[in-house]
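Step 1: inspect the first sequence and its C-alpha cells.
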Amino acid sequence: MADRYWVGGSGNWNSTNTGNWSATSGGSSGASAPVSGDDVFFDASSDSGASFTVTITTTAPTIRNLTISGLDQAMILAGTPGWTIQGSISLPASNFTWSATGTVTLGGSSSSRTILTNGVTINGGLTFDSSGSDWTLQSALTLGSNDNMTLTAGTLDLAGYAVSCQLFVISGSTTRTLTMGSSTVSCTGTGNAWNATTSTNLTLNCDTSNIILTRNTNSKTFMGGSLTYYNVSQGGSGPLTIGGSNTFNDVLNPYKTTGSTAISFTAGTTQTVSNFSASGESGRVLTLLSTSGGSAWTVSKSSGTVTVDYVSLEDSTATGGATWNATNSADAGGNTGWSFVAAGYTMTAGLGSFTLTGQDVALKHNRVLVAAYASVSLTGQDVGLQYGRLMSAGL
C-alpha cells in the first residue's frame, strides 16, 4: 500500500504515466501510477497555477481510497473507461467536476467505507459489488441523468440521504443488504426504474423511505420483488407500473398537482398497504388499472377506511377488512369491494349572495334549490330564504 498524490496540472491517468504522480503532496513527480491498495489524493498542490483536467485513459485504474480536497484551482475528472475503487470516496464542495463517464465499481474487501460527494454529481454510475463489505453515505448522492445505481453484493446504507439516479438496480443472488433510513430515492429513468426483481439473499430495510419514480412522457416500472417498502410515489406524467405482490406503508401520487397520470398493477398481484393515498385532483384524474384488461389486481388493508379522490378505477379488488371509498371517481368496470361515493355539496351565503360548489346543484323554475344525493351544507352567517322561496334536498 502506498500514497499517490497528483502533481503538475493536466495529464492522463493510466498505468504508464509517472509524470503526474508523487509520493507526497506537492513533491517531485516520477512516482509509479497507483495500483490496487494505493490511496489517491488530489489537493491544492495538484495544479500548476491554473485549472486542470485529469483524464482517465484506456487502462482503467484500481485504487483503494479516493480523496479530493482543498483544491485552489478548478479540477475536472474526465475519461470513459470504467474503474474500481476498493475503499472510500471523498469529494470537495467546490472547484471540482466529475465528468468521467466510466462506471465505478466499488469492490475490494474492506469494511466501514464511506461516500461523501458534497453535492458533486457523479457521472458514469456506481456498482456496489463486494461480498461482506459495507458502504455508508455521508451526503446526498446524485448520479448523472443516464447513470445507474447498482447493488450486486455487500451492504449499502443510504443513512437517510437523498439519492437520485436513472435506475436503481438490485441484482444477482449474492448476499446483499440495503438500508434506506428516511431517504428519498428519485429514479428518473424509463423501463425498470426500480428493479429488485431477484430478492434471493436480499435484506431490504425500508425504514421511512420514499421511492419516487419521476419519469415524464415515457412509462416506468417499479419491480418490487414482493418485498416490504415504506412509501412509493408516482412522480411524473409517464405511466407507472407496479410489479410484484408487495407491502407498502403508502402508495401516493404527488404528480396530481401537475396533471393526469396512471398507475397500473400487474394482473394477479396483491398490494398490502397500511395506507393508500393515491388520488387525483379536479381536472387531473389518476387512472388505477390492471396491466391486463379484465384481469384484476388486488389491494388489501386490514381495517379502517380508505378514500381515494378523482380516480378512474378499473379491474381492482379491494379487500382485507377495510372500507374502500372512491369519491368524485369513475367506475371503469371490473371492480370489487369499492364504494363509489358522491362528494358533498356546499352552499355558502354572504351579504345576500350564494356560492354553490359541487355537482348537480340547480335552482329550478319554482325557486327550489335541489342538491343531488341529499347533501346540502350551509356555511357562513345570516343565511335566509325570503318571499316564500323553498330549499330542499333531492334524492
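Step 2: inspect the second sequence and its C-alpha cells, then contrast the two.
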Amino acid sequence: TMAQVIQRVQRPALVLAPLAAVAFTLLVSALLVLLAGAPVGRTYAAMLSGGFGSVFAWTETLTRAVPLVLTGLAAAVAFRARLYNIGAEGQLYGGAMAAVVVGGVAAGGELFAPAWLVFALMLAAAALTGALLLLGPAWLKAKLGVDEVVTMLLLKFIVLLAVSALLDGPMKDAGALGWPQSLPLAGELELARLVPGARLHSGLLIAIVLALVLWQVMAHTVLGFDIRASGANARAAAFAGVPALRTTLVVALVSGGLAGLAGAIEVAGRTGYVTLDMSPGYGYSGIVIAMLAGLHPLGVLAAGIFIAGVLVGADSMSRVVGVPTYIADVIVATALIAVLVATLATQYRLRWRMAALPLAAS
C-alpha cells in the first residue's frame, strides 16, 4: 500500500543516520583543528561554551536559530515532496524587502494604518513574495519538466541583483551616509524582546508555532499524506489519485512562504532594515538543517538550534584558541555531505560475505 511505501525505511535507522553524520562531522573537524595546531578538547569546549555556556550565549544562539529554523522548515516541506528548494536565500531576501516596502518609513514618516494592521500586511507580503518566487519554478517543473534546481539558482541571482538595485535606488535610506541599506522599519513593527537586554525576540515563538503546525499538517491531514506520497513515489501517488500538480504548487506556496517569512522576521526582530549581508547563508544552512532533521518539522527545531550554536560558538572558539571561524562553515558543509551518505545507507542492508577460497590443486 501507499502507506507502506512511505514508511519503508525503518525509524531507528532514520534516527541514527543524523547522529552518525554529526559524529563523523565532529571527527573530520577534529582533524582540521589538529592541523591548525590547537587542542581538540579545548576547541570544542570553547565552541560549546560560546554557544550554550551562559544565558547570553543561549539568547544569541536562539536568535540565530530563528531564521535557520524557518528556512529549515521551508526546505523540509519542499524536499518531502521532492521539490528541491535550494533558492530559499533569494526568497528570504525577497521577503525581507517586501516587509520593508510595506513597513519601512522615511525619516519622520508615519505608518499608513494602525501598527497591528501594517504588521499583519508586512508578514503577508513577505510570505507572498517568497511563495511567488518558488511558485514559478515549481510550475515549470510540474508542467514542463524543467529542473527546478537550475531555475531556482538563476532566480536567486536575479532576486539578489534586484534587491541590490532597490537598496541603491528607491528604497535607499538617505540617512545611511551612502551605505546601501533600505529604509528602516517603523519602531512600532519591531518584535518584542523575550529577555531584557538581549537580542532574543518573539520571532522564536513564531518559529516554534509554525514547526508545530507543519508537523500536525504533515502527520494528520490529507494534504500531508499527499505530500509524503508524492515524495515517496510520484507515479504511484498519481495512480492512487493524489493530485500531483496541485500538491506541488501548494508545497511551493508553503515552502516559499516560510522562507519569505524568515526574511521579514529577521528584519522585524534583529536588523531593522535590509542590507546585502543581512543573511550569512541562512537559506543554504536551512538545507543542512532539514537533512539533519530527517525532514521532520520538530527535528528542524533541534537541528536549527544545534547549527546556530555551532555558528555562534565559533566566534568564541576563535578568540579562545585561535582557530579560524571558518571551521563552522566546514562543520555545516561536512554535516550535509555526511547526512546525505548516512540517509542513503538507510535504504540498504549491508551484508558481509567471506569470499570462497579456491581449492589447492591436488
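Step 3: confirm your contrast with the notes below.
The chain has 14 helices and no strands. Confidence is low (pLDDT under 50) at residues 1-9.
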